[in-house]
Amino acid sequence: MVKIENLSVEYGGGNCALKDVSLEIKEGESVALLGANGAGKSTLLKTLAGLCKISSGSVEINGTLLERKNLRKIRSDIGFVFQNSDDQLFSLTVEEDVVFGLRNMGFDFQKSMEIAGETMASLNISHLANRSPSRLSEGEKKRAAIACILAMKPKILLFDEPTSQLDARSTRLLCELLKSLKGTKIIATHDLKVAGSVCEKAAVLDNSRLVKFGNASEILSDEKLLFNCSLL
Ligand SMILES: Nc1ncnc2c1ncn2[C@@H]1O[C@H](COP(=O)(O)OP(=O)(O)OP(=O)(O)O)[C@@H](O)[C@H]1O
């Protein structure tokens, strides 16, 4: 579903955020993206969503090469839940936010409302439909932001630090939700417990390079690896 080969990404001024990263993620797999601050996690997610320019190497999403002319197709397969829900929610009500993406996809108003209603119900946020996103708790905002993305039924879900602003209870509820979501998931997180409870695989980035990719429970019990990568 995601095939990354020798990927390097540089920001301006020769700042190399990803160096020679190769990994393959199969359909339906959930992968935790681990790494210290600045390791390159967000850059990798943004690159998969077509938001960062590839300096060298290649990325294939669902069999389509990630390049400018294929961006529309790639973006229809990808749903990106940003770290900060406020970057995703901008309408007067939660329902309008969920409907927005569906209308952009070409669904008529009635069908968009129908899908939005079903999606909000599946996330237990129907009671928030007419609330202003700006007045929700962080946990509620996160669910609303996820609803906006899930409504569009992407094949691949990208989450950047989904639990970073949540308390223990909201984190646990969100983990349950993340586990229940179907599809391929890539979750960048600093929280090793979240990684262990939600993901079957893990990828460890250190200083822009992929240093380990494999079974999550094996990686999470490798204290030496975690320590060397500043994760412990
Ligand atoms: N827009 C940008 N312009 C220039 N350099 C950037 C930009 N965004 C990130 N970087 C640099 O790229 C490197 C990787 O950053 P990235 O945000 O991908 O790391 P991260 O693993 O997500 O970190 P964190 O855990 O702190 O969110 C860092 O050195 C960072 O300073």
How would you describe this protein?
- Pfam families: ABC_tran (PF00005).
- Keywords: ATP-binding, Nucleotide-binding, Transport.
- This is Energy-coupling factor ABC transporter ATP-binding protein.
- The chain is of the alpha/beta class.
- It has one domain (2-228): Rossmann fold.
- 37% of the residues lie in helices and 26% in strands.
- The strands form two sheets. It has a six-stranded mixed beta sheet, sandwiched between helices. A four-stranded antiparallel beta sheet has the order 2-1-4-5, with helices on one face.
- Helix 3 crosses helix 4 (109-122).
- The longest helix is centred in the middle third of the chain and has 14 residues, at 109-122.
- The chain is globular, with a radius of gyration of 18 Å.
- The two termini are 31 Å apart.
- Bound molecules: adenosine-5'-triphosphate.
